[in-house]
């Protein structure tokens, strides 16, 4: 028996996502940018699809909403929660569902499970979705990435994609070069089993939040420093450096972003293990491209992606 899931992920990472799932032997059908249907031979839990922004277990699909089979499959196991709701979407936007369909889903779910309907603070959402491609489906949303993040913090789904792009392996030595609120390191530690994580952040207010947050994990070390100075004054190399320098929310923190990016890459280049990678991203595409060129590093991948609605360039750099 196979299980079908509809996943949303950051647009622009399609090739990486297809490659990852194919390598794992999972059937994938890429329907639109940032959206795919994937088929597993067993029921999945959200960590297996850590790069997905949302995951919906699909029960039925059709060309139009009236054509959907709204019954739950016999294999359906009701989750722990006891309140459910129904949400409908057109593309990625919420849409209005006609009353008859809503009543039919409520009746079906209430009859076959012990769940109770509640539009407010439900534990699980049943979804009726019409995609841009015309595909309609009925399913149930799985809980993902419930960790509350700060404004400007990179979300776990995007960080997972950056780590996969940087060929992260178990036991890696990793550097979170511009740590901010610690979104990158949080995902390093929870999803990728690194041997050590160094977080470098220059803003003392943020450092004061990072220190207690990562104190209990022996693998993590927070350095209150300008990252360029830090790399110049310390020793040891890294298998993966993820650099999320100021841009967007954090743009005001420094004057000349192009200069910062270039200085950073010039020193970071010397601190990468053989075969190691630097994954760096910014919405300041020209500045990032110029810094990469000036560093003389090899651009192994260049991705134009969408993160929190912003157009961002992601570069994967290596020295060999
Ligand atoms: C885009 S934010 C990083 C957000 C982070 N990835 C997260 O998930 O929270 C960039 C961070 O770099 C810090 N920063 C700016 N210039 C720096 C420098 N020269 N050295 C170290 N950190 C710096 C800023 O204070 C800001 O917190």
What string, H for helix and E for strand, traces the elements in order?
EHEEEEEHEEEHEHEHEHEHEHEE
* Helix run count: 8
| Overall average pLDDT | 92
- Which small-molecule ligands are present, each listed once? S-adenosylmethionine
Describe this structure in words.
The protein has 320 residues and is an alpha/beta fold. The chain has 2 domains: 3-142, VC0802-like (2-Layer Sandwich), CATH 3.30.2130; 156-318, Rossmann fold (3-Layer(aba) Sandwich). It is 26% helix and 32% strand. The chain has 8 helices and 16 strands. Strands 1, 2, 3, 4, 5, 6, 7, 8 and 9 form a 9-stranded mixed β-sheet that branches. Strand 15 and strand 16 form a beta hairpin. S-adenosylmethionine binds at residues 152-154, 178, 180-184, 200-203, 206, 226-228, 244-246, 250, 253-254, 260.
Features:
alpha/beta, 7-stranded mixed sheet, Rossmann fold, binds S-adenosylmethionine, 9-stranded mixed sheet, 16 strands, VC0802-like, single chain, 320 residues
């Amino acid at each position: 028996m196979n299980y079908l899931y509809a996943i949303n992920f950051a647009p622009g990472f399609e090739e990486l996502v297809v490659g990852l799932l194919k390598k794992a032997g999972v059937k994938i059908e890429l329907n639109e940018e940032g959206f795919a249907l994937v088929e597993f031979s067993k029921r999945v839990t959200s960590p297996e699809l850590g790069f997905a922004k949302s995951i919906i277990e699909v029960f039925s699909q059709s060309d139009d909403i009236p054509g959907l089979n709204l019954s739950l499959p016999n294999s359906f196991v009701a989750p722990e929660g006891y309140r459910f709701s129904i949400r409908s979407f057109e593309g990625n936007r919420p849409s209005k569902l006609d009353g008859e369909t809503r009543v039919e889903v409520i009746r079906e779910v209430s009859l076959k499970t012990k769940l109770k309907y509640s539009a407010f603070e439900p534990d699980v959402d049943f979804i009726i979705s019409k995609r841009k491609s015309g595909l309609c489906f009925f399913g149930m949303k799985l809980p993902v990435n419930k960790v509350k993040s700060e404004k400007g913090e990179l979300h776990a789904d995007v960080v997972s994609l950056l780590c996969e792009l940087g060929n992260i392996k178990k036991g890696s030595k990793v550097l979170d070069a511009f740590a901010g609120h610690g979104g990158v390191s949080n995902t390093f530690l929870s999803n990728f089993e690194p041997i050590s994580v160094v977080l470098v952040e220059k803003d003392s207010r943020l450092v004061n939040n990072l220190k207690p947050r990562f104190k209990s994990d022996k693998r993590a070390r927070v350095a209150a420093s300008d990252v360029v100075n830090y790399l110049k004054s310390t020793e040891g190399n890294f298998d993966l450096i993820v650099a999320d320098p100021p841009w967007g929310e954090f743009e005001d923190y420094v004057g000349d972003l192009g200069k910062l990016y270039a200085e950073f890459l010039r020193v970071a280049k010397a601190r990468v293990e053989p075969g190691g990678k630097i994954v760096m991203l910014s919405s300041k595409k020209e500045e990032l491209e110029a810094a990469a060129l000036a560093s003389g590093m090899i651009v192994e991948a260049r991705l134009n992606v969408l993160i929190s609605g912003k157009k961002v360039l992601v570069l994967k750099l290596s020295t060999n």
